[in-house]
Design goal:
The chain is α+β, with helices and mostly antiparallel strands. It has nine helices and six strands. The termini are far apart.
Length: about 200
Amino acid sequence: MNSVPDELERAVEATLFAAEQPMTAQEISVHLGGAAIDAALNQLREAYAGRGVELVERGGRWHFQTAPDLAHLLRREKEEPRRLSRAATEALAIIAYHEPVSRAEIEAIRGVQTAKGTLDVLLEAGWIRIAGRREVPGRPTIYATTPAFLTHFGLQSRRDLPGIEELRAAGLLDPVEEAFAVLTRGEEADTEAADPDEADEAE
């Protein structure tokens, strides 16, 4: 790191270390009395580059994280976190590629009904948020991803989401391939009625 970091750089560093969650530059600035902190953030990022802890920016929010190549050193045995169901995984992918999107739009793309519990799981994980209501009859709730989603999957922004060819090359496409293709091309989803027998089971 710099041999003699200035006071503002040290203040930004201390603020981020003490923060319970990633912070935007504006939030850091407000915390430090309105100081201009862009230069300090860039200096800190350069100073920590290549070290065991790095300063990263994801979705406009800054935080310190363990260097990716050292993450295995900090893993401890713990209870296996709950895995996402197929329905939740598909819903999350649809929201990420086509946000903001309503539950009805998710169902139109998936071709089956989506249980309320499926979206609740994603909300509880902090990966999606309620982004308002669609200005159409019934004003349905619409969903979008969160900065926590970007952080968890190592994305700086939604522009870093893999394209259809990358997903196919990685062998990650299955019967929902057409849904991904529709999303990434921005085409209209199939709106045929869902088969009640194929609806998700309530969680």
